[in-house]
Amino acid sequence: MSNESRGYHEEGLSGDQQISDHRHLAWHETMELHELTAFQASALIKLKKSVRKVKDPQLQSLYIYSIQLLEQNLRELLLFYSYAPSVSNDHHCHRGITASQAGDLLGLAKTSVRTYAAAITETATPILRRVLTKQLHAAVEWHGKIFYYMLQHGYYPAYNLEMLLRNDQVNAQRAIAMRY
């Protein structure tokens, strides 16, 4: 049996859900794990804060389903954090209301950049393509302003992977524990 096909059984992971013999995640997948966890934790907090305000029973049911789905997603994703490269759990997390608000704004800007980029690839009309390209550039600038604000204030430790991943874990656990 080759090294790559061996894998080993991890607590919380079963069957084909195994970590390779490298015994840690690759850097690029660790960053994707970060993006998914941060995005879903933020969305979960928003849903839990607003679910009681939804008056339509069917829509409220969809909110509750979404909350349960995101909670399960986060629980599953958090299992992989102990396999991130060079992660220790002894770092201070800097997450307050301002950091959370800035993170929401950063997520909106990042989603805008991705959405514009995808829209441009589907655009056939030249003038619309130029307008969307101009707006994409503005969205990139917008994202940069928010990102550098967060970096400057210590809300986004982009150059400290351990702190970044620890912030994800704390925020996701807080979102899961939050009542709705």
Task: Give a quick precis of the structure.
The protein is mainly α and 180 residues long.
Tag the structure with descriptive keywords.
180 residues, mainly alpha, 2 domains, globular
Number of strands: 0
Gap from first CA to last CA = 49 Å
Counted by DSSP, the helix tally is 6
In the residues, how many domains can be counted?
2
**Which descriptor suits the 3D outline?**
globular
Indicate the topology.
Layout: H1 3-6, H2 27-50, H3 57-78, H4 97-121, H5 126-152, H6 161-177
Helix pairs in contact: 2-3, 2-6, 3-6, 4-5
Describe the structure.
The chain has helices at residues 3-6, 27-50, 57-78, 97-121, 126-152, 161-177. With 180 residues, it is mainly α. The protein folds into two domains: 29-93 and 160-180; 95-156. Helix 2 packs parallel to helix 6 (161-177). It is globular, with a radius of gyration of 19 Å. 14% of the residues are buried. The model is unreliable at 1-11 and 89-93 (pLDDT under 50). InterPro entries: Spore_coat_CotF-like. Keywords: Capsid protein, Virion.
